Amino acid sequence: MKPTPALQLSRTGQLLAGPSGIQELMDDCGEALTLHPDMRMLGGGQPAAIPEVQKLWRQRMNELLADGAAFDRTLLNYDPPAGSPAFREAMAAFLKRECGWDVTRENIAVVPSSQTGFFLLFNMLAGESAGGVRRILFPLLPEYIGYANQALCAGQFSAVLPRIEERDEHEIKYHVDFEKLKITPDVAAMCVSCPTNPTGNVLTREEFGRLRELSRKHGIPLIIDNAYGHPFPGVLHGEWRPHWEPGMIFSISLSKLGLPGVRTAVIVADAPVVKALSNMNAIVSLANGNVGQALVTPLLADDRLLRLGREVIRPFYQQRSEFARQVLANALGDRLPWALHVQEGAFFLWLWLKKLPIPAAELYRRLKARKVLVIPGHYFAYGLDHDWRHPHECLRLTYSQPASVVQEGLEILAEEAVKAFAG
Ligand SMILES: Cc1ncc(COP(=O)(O)O)c(C=O)c1O
Predict the structure, then answer these.
(1) 343-356, pLDDT tens digit by residue?
(2) What was the pLDDT predicted at 259?
């Protein structure tokens, strides 16, 4: 039999078709949830199975099925590439009424997941341009692993290291280091996830204001990724909420509302950005999946989604986060030097094992062999022209799986960490 010829990849193919952190994470996570149910999954950004939330989506699906004509229309029809006009209208009315943002349907683009939305945005705004390579600047590392491999050209991403506040022996908070944040003419946009995946950090009101001021001064968009935050699922533990205004780009996903399977997100932006995104969407995807839009549209008529976040989803994760913190604190005790990032939102613990003698990637391998999946911290550091040791001492830990799984996983992690320190 003739050997299969080696796959010849284009430059874009080489960038996108090789291994990447996000592909490894999603493979690990997907296999743990399907092929290896004995794996303790503290890895992906999988939302938790929250009974009240699951009941709501089952009920909405039943309502959709009961209305035969609406159900048929949903499955049968391609939407326009910017999304269902009725959904865009309902979303704009919701954001105007509940959040006070000055938006209309023209400010709403539906995209097939925020992951896809970011790929389109980053490559629409930055990359090879007439005056050279334009960059997306991440002002606060560590930042979401899923952005790391989305650039279509070298030098398209750059990032700024945080100022690390050590609040006490076992607690840190990252801050934007405005001394180091320089907006040069090649910066096309800034982007921050808020709350941040992986750390659970939330920008302070002052940091948001200063980033907004910088972006206004330099005429570049400030992109805020609200996958875990405002307005839904609302997993923000403090009072402050970011506010969209013209010149900004906000991403809001249905995924962490318990609907990652519908692959639907919304980009809120100035009308020309929305039009450009939907034109790209037509080329890449024709249209969006419309089941998620159909499930959610009636809930946008009042404040039900906000209440669901406030009364069910946020308290669930807050309690889980506290539980996970306690388990880990008990297991690590004073056996080694460690700190957690303060929990201000999202679904993760960000653990810093100070002066960890092995790279976090090796600890990840040892833990995987013991059937515990975590994410080593270095995947969340990119856009740098030098190595940064700190994230090699860090792990991201998800606490959305059942409490017993979280507890076992964290206790095994503590055992392996102690072994690593003991050499
Ligand atoms: C910060 C952040 N942004 C975007 C995404 C992608 O979300 P989705 O593509 O499911 O909308 C995730 C997923 O975990 C995330 O954590």
Answers:
(1) 999 999 999 999 99
(2) 97
Torsion of CA 95, 237, 228, 138, to 10 degrees: 100
Identify the pLDDT of residue 17: 87
Give the pLDDT band (50/70/90) at residue 33: confident
For the chain, the structural domain boundaries read: 19-53+308-422, 78-301
Q: Quick one: which of 46, 80, 125, 145 has its CA closest to 402?
A: 46
The CATH label, of 3.40.50.1820, 3.50.50.60, 3.90.1150.10, 1.10.10.10, for the domain at 19-53+308-422 is 3.90.1150.10
> In this structure, which residue's CA is closest to atom 14 in ligand 1?
45
Q: Is 400 in the pocket of ligand 1 (CB under 6 A)?
A: no
> Which architecture does CATH list for 78-301?
3-Layer(aba) Sandwich (3.40)
Strands 372-373 and 348-353: unpaired
Judge whether residue 223 has pLDDT over 80: yes
Residue 40, φ and ψ in degrees, nearest 5 = -85, 110
User: Is the CB–ligand 1 distance for residue 337 below 6 Å?
Assistant: no
Q: Which residues pair with 339 in a beta bridge?
A: 352
